[in-house]
Design brief:
Strands 1-2-4-5-6-9-10 form a seven-stranded mixed sheet. Strands 11-12-13-14-16-17-18 form a seven-stranded mixed sheet. The chain has one domain: Ribonuclease Z/Hydroxyacylglutathione hydrolase-like (Metallo-beta-lactamase, Chain A), CATH 3.60.15.10. The chain is globular and about 50 Å long. Strand 7 and strand 8 form a beta hairpin. It contains ten helices and 18 strands. The protein is α+β, with helices and mostly antiparallel strands and about 325 residues long.
């Protein structure tokens, strides 16, 4: 009798453990993702990368000046095939005296998977009202759409800065009227995004290389768009350059810098800008921050044969 009792108790225990495990294994998936922000220090500055979301891009159709088999091979080397899930990133710089946002994401201008930058800015501990200045690399919709919420300025206290050539192109009705039908939306998106700031006298353009605030300098890098600009951020001997759309597809364009993009207004001008800045970053070893490299899009370059390899920034628990 004692033996049967012991066996029965053991069986009950096994059944209880099995049921307990099954209940946990059957829990619904949580879904969702953590807030898209990443923080690092650069000398006395605080850099916060902000993700606007990701978008699937048919890069095999968008890349130009590269044979299709080469594109496929380079994508496969990174375990990718088109369409490639592509990040859209912006960068917030706290200099200690100014809060500067570089690019604003797409809001509703580039599909339903984007438009998260402002929510991620808030999750990172800041509010849109705190942003003093916004620097635009160029006026494509995935970089300026987040300037507005509806028809109102999303950053009500901010001055917007962009190269005068960029505004002169994308905010021109004459240029829009002369553009192909499939390009007119780019002009319309730029105008809708900038209009509240233009009306309030808060769009302040600059001409070429310009120090905008101490430690942040605009550097012309035309080609992708007529006034495409990159921004050098420097503090205490440390440097980071925000590249905007100097490049788009890491798996292809780091290994093959001559590969260009259909989105380039002037790909023949964009290519040497990319080559020059790749070489400088690899030689000098500073950080770069890139709109369409996998979030947070911050890292360094090193030479790798005839191309370059991407070295992501090391994650740190310490924070700033």
């Amino acid at each position: 009798m004692h033996r049967w009792s012991t066996t029965f108790k053991s069986t009950l225990a096994v059944l209880a453990l099995t049921a307990f495990g099954a209940a946990h294994a059957g829990a619904p998936q949580a879904k969702g993702q953590a807030p898209g922000w990443y923080r690092m220090t650069l000398g006395d500055f605080e850099i916060t990368a902000l993700n606007d979301g990701t978008v699937q891009l048919p890069v095999d159709k968008l890349l130009t000046n590269a044979p299709a088999p080469t594109i496929a091979s380079l994508l496969a080397r990174s375990y990718l095939k088109p369409p490639v899930e592509t990040s859209v990133n912006g960068y917030l710089i706290n200099t200690g005296t100014k809060l500067v946002l570089i690019d604003t994401g797409a809001a509703g201008l580039f599909g339903p998977t984007l438009g998260k930058l402002v929510a991620n800015l808030k999750a990172s501990g800041y509010q849109p009202e705190q942003v003093d200045e916004i620097y635009i690399t160029h006026m494509h919709p995935d970089h300026v759409g987040g300037l507005v919420a509806g028809d109102k300025a999303a950053f009500p206290n901010a001055i917007v800065r962009a190269d005068t050539r960029e505004g002169g192109f994308w905010l021109s009705k004459e240029k829009m009227d002369a553009a192909p039908a499939d390009a007119k939306g780019f002009f319309q998106g730029a105008m809708a995004s900038l209009n509240p700031y233009v009306a309030a006298g808060k769009l302040k353009t600059f001409d070429g290389a310009t120090e905008l605030v101490p430690g942040i300098k605009a550097i012309p890098a035309p080609g992708h768009t007529p006034g495409h600009t990159i921004y050098a951020v420097e503090s205490q001997g440390n440097k980071l350059v925000v590249w905007g759309d100097l490049m788009h597809v890491a798996a292809v364009q780091f290994a093959m810098p001559t590969a260009t993009m259909q989105f380039d207004v002037d790909s023949k001008a964009a290519m040497p800008q990319r080559q020059k800045n790749y070489a400088d970053a690899a030689k000098k070893g500073y950080y770069v921050a890139v709109a369409h490299v996998a979030f947070p899009g911050i890292g360094k370059l090193r030479t790798d044969g005839k191309g370059y390899a991407w070295v992501p920034a090391v994650y740190s628990n310490a924070g700033p």
